[in-house]
Amino acid sequence: MADFVPVQKAVVPAAGLGTRFLPATKATPKEMLPVVDKPAIQYVVEEAVDAGLTDVLMITGRSKRSIEDHFDRAYELEEALRAKGDEERLAAVRESSDLAIMHYVRQGEPRGLGHAVHCARQHVGDEPFAVLLGDDMIDSRDRLLSRMIEVRQQRGGSVVALMEVPPDQVSAYGCAAIEGTDEDDVVRITDLVEKPAADEAPSNWIIIGRYVCDPAVFDVLEKTPPGRGGEIQLTDALRTLAEMPREQGGTVYGVKFRGRRYDTGNKLEYLRTVVQFASERPDLAPEFIPWLREFVKRHDAADGVEGS
């Protein structure tokens, strides 16, 4: 294995306005919307911790104080639960505050994902780091981030997570031009295109919200002009890194992910995620799944009556 500095820190951008979920997100950060009984952002932090990253920097903005409160101790609540002898809920409340060493920095203005990542420079320093986007949840049974960190340790450079999608979906994502390596699930990135038209996409492999970045990305981001939407795009910085020599922190690899990913970035996908998680919970599934089947049956029957 090559002698590269180990990845020890995770950066979680969480400064978005959550406009797709208004009015629910008028006063509540979208990252705090629950997936069953845990906020979506906790699943993301748990993923980082499971990959060995216990130093987590959250990039926040205005009206995000509840995120900090969630990962802090709640002494009054804990004492009330202890007095009731409710050990199960006490453990659940303590779990989030015991997960990791949490740090916070504010992104003063919403200037894009690239700018949010650049806000982490002082905390990260001259070390490689992982970036986990809160809208993407990876099933805990799929060790994507651990695999990406392993690839970074073996090859250096930066690493992005890739998923294959139908051609008509590539225009909603950053898309990668790739070439193979000696490992089936690892490719080298030769170009990145942000939200290309379907007929201009270099492949069907899109970037999903997991990155392991070489610290060289900070210097590149500093010089990266605003791109699509007037924002500083992380994709543009990674394209530059892909063209740079490894000795300067360049080269970008992709890990092909074929596992389970949940998108909580829009209402329909969020609802699907909640249903899937509830359906796999042993404490909920025995009652929830029969109810769901009956609901669908009634819904289909009503549609049949209306359509006749």
Order of helices and strands, N to C? Answer: EEEHEHHHEHHEEHEEEEHHEEHH
* Low-pLDDT stretches: none
What's the tally of helices?
A: 11
Largest sheet: 9 strands, mixed
Proportion of residues in helical segments: 25-40%
Number of domains: 2
**Average residue-wise pLDDT:** 91
The name CATH uses for the topology of the largest domain is Spore Coat Polysaccharide Biosynthesis Protein SpsA, Chain A
Round the Cα radius of gyration to an integer and report it. 21 Å
- Strand order across the biggest sheet? 5-4-1-6-11-8-12-10-9
Shape descriptor reads: globular
CATH class of the largest domain: Alpha Beta
Q: Got a strand count?
A: 13
What is the rounded distance between the termini? Answer: 67 Å
The helix/strand class is alpha/beta
CATH superfamily of the largest domain: Spore Coat Polysaccharide Biosynthesis Protein SpsA, Chain A
